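Tokens for chain A. Residues wanted.
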């Protein structure tokens, strides 16, 4: 309800004439507000061309509130006004931020605001070095802050019509933006543990959560980087025409952006079909829990892969870093992934009927991008019908709120069954 309320307020603000530089329909405002609050980045109108500075500021604030989390924002406002948080509110915040415990949640929220704002301001200062050399000071400052907030919150909104393609060969912009959305997708729990570990002389070992999240993140970045270079090295529509150094830079940027960042420095429509399939897999996995990234999350993929490996080798419980993974956790990961696939399949089926003139690959790409709150596009979003846009809006909302949160919110609360039925063997596979 919090995310829905934020989207509603954002829609009204973006529908006001003061927010427009060009005519914007109410549906366009609704789509843009949803994409901003859900930190997705899919657009149906040019952000920098269609909206005024007021409208762009509204979009930036919607991105900030959506990335921080509606419950987090409400808690911070309560703390500023001197209100105390009850135990129920602390439990809700603990669930939203993917913390393993309720203790210290108030201090955690203060540190969260300080951590995110500091990184966004530092990123804006670095980007100002480039934008300040190209634009008037006031405009350059706004461009720097907007792109820094958008990058750190993995939103993918850009004030340029070509996203960041004009800076494909610029290491300052490319690496700064990449660093911002990598940090944003890291997850505040992991980030705080990194800071605490290296600030404390005791060098306490990482928790299992941080080990798995960091390992999966590094593995996915490396594999995606190598795959992107190998697959697109000679492609005349992407990396082919670039010098070697620029190929490596652009390949790295496009390898890390599919895990929900949404920026692009290359034209995805010109990539090989195999590359697009790999990108969709990365979009479906997403970032770490408790981050601004979407997808089913890296830890979910790690649990499923470990469970499959254990079954294939005939072992018992799956083990990660010498710690066994409980069967309940494996079941939860399997349910999340299966539910995600079913939702994508259902949405794609509806889109195939509402958008008969569009090919299946662009529709599938937009569907996965919306559900993973990524924002990458093959150009089909702006061509969608009203029903098609409403389907994409629903996917963005589900992807940001989270499947577990949504299911718990709408499910009927029932008392635990008093009867436990006997088990029996069932042949599968």
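Reply:
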């Amino acid at each position: 309800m919090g995310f829905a309320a934020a989207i509603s307020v954002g829609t009204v603000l973006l529908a006001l004439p003061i927010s427009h530089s060009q005519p914007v329909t109410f549906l366009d405002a609704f789509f843009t507000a949803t994409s901003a609050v859900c930190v997705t980045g899919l657009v149906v109108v040019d952000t920098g061309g269609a909206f005024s500075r007021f409208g762009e500021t509204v979009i930036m604030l919607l991105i900030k509130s959506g990335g921080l989390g509606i419950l987090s924002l409400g808690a911070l406002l309560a703390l500023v006004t001197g209100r105390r948080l009850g135990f129920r509110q602390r439990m809700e915040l603990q669930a939203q931020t993917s913390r393993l415990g309720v203790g210290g949640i108030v201090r955690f929220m203060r540190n969260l605001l300080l951590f995110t704002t500091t990184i966004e301001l530092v990123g804006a200062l670095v980007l100002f070095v480039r934008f300040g050399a190209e634009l008037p000071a006031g405009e350059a400052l706004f461009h720097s802050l907007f792109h820094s907030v958008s990058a750190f919150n993995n939103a993918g909104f850009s004030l340029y019509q070509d996203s960041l393609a004009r800076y494909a060969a610029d290491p300052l912009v490319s690496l700064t933006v990449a660093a911002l959305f990598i940090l944003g997708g890291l997850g505040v729990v992991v980030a705080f543990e990194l800071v605490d570990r290296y600030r404390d002389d005791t060098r306490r070992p990482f928790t299992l959560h941080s080990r798995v999240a960091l390992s999966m993140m590094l593995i996915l970045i490396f594999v995606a980087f190598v795959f992107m270079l190998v697959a697109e090295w000679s492609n005349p529509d992407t990396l082919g025409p670039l010098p070697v150094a620029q190929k490596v830079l652009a390949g790295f940027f496009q390898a890390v952006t599919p895990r929900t960042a949404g920026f692009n420095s290359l034209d995805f429509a010109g990539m090989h079909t195999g590359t697009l399939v790999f990108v969709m897999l990365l979009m479906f996995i997403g970032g770490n829990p408790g981050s601004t990234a979407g997808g089913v999350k890296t830890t979910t993929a790690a649990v499923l892969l470990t469970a499959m490996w254990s079954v294939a080798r005939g072992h018992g419980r799956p083990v990660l870093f010498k710690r066994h993974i409980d069967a309940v956790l494996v079941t939860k990961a399997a349910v999340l992934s299966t539910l995600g696939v079913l939702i994508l399949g259902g949405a794609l089926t509806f889109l195939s009927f509402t958008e008969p003139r569009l090919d299946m690959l662009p529709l599938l790409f937009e569907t996965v991008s919306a559900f993973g709150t990524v924002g990458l596009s093959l150009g089909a979003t702006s061509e969608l019908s009203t029903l098609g846009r409403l389907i994409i809006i629903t996917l963005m909302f589900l992807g940001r709120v989270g499947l577990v949160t949504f299911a718990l919110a709408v499910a009927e609360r029932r008392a635990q069954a008093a009867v436990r039925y006997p088990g029996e063997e069932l042949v599968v596979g």
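The beta strands are 319-320, 323-324. Residues 77-81 have pLDDT under 50 and may be disordered.
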